[in-house]
Design goal:
By secondary structure, this protein is of the alpha+beta class. The protein folds into two domains: 36 residues; 99 residues, Nuclear Transport Factor 2, Chain: A. Helix content is 41%, strand content 26%. A hairpin with a 6-residue loop joins strand 2 and strand 3.
Length: 176
């Protein structure tokens, strides 16, 4: 007599009693391996496509928005203090800041700063931001690490103003 409970479950057989395919007893195992390999190849191909997309989005997210005062101020800091590229810092300057950069270029002329120059490691963080109509001031704290020298900090006050439709650094000062 078959109980109602037995009717609801299909016949369960241990794997060693399941009938094997007529053509080679390993057919099911080989088929499973092949499908697992196909899934693995698909996942690898997917990862190869997804990684560059994620990297591009990450790099875009890390970039500075040069349409904002803060983006321009930080690009100026990067060029002036991190990369020591005064010509590039000049592109983000106007007014008194431009005059100061031009003076620095004049004072350092003849001093080659290239790939062989040992540059210090510079990290900075925003401490304070003050906004007014068409003007913004940023106070940054920079940490400078040079080879064979103790680490030290500086504060940079960066003033930015709207110059036409773009933001430019109009002044900057450095203090201990």
């Amino acid at each position: 007599m078959i109980t109602p409970l037995a009717k609801s479950f299909p016949r369960i057989q241990p794997p060693h009693l399941s009938p094997l395919p007529l053509t080679g007893g390993e057919g099911r195992v080989r088929g499973n391996r092949r499908s697992l390999r196909a899934i693995s190849v698909f996942q690898s191909a997917t990862s190869l496509l997804v990684f560059p997309i994620c990297l591009a989005l990450f790099l875009l997210g890390c970039g500075k928005d040069l349409r904002t005062a803060q983006g321009v101020a930080e690009e100026f800091l990067d060029q002036h203090y991190v990369e020591i590229n005064l010509q590039k810092a000049k592109e983000y300057s106007v007014g008194l800041a431009l005059e100061k950069i031009n003076d620095e270029i004049r004072l350092t002329s003849g001093q080659a700063i290239d790939a062989s120059t040992r540059k210090p490691k510079v990290h900075y963080r925003l401490l304070e931001k003050k906004e007014a109509e068409g003007r913004v001031q940023f106070l940054y704290q920079g940490t400078i690490q040079a080879e064979d020298a103790p680490e030290f900090t500086r504060r940079w006050l960066i003033a930015a103003r709207k110059d036409g439709d773009r933001w430019r650094v109009s002044n900057f000062t450095e203090s201990d």
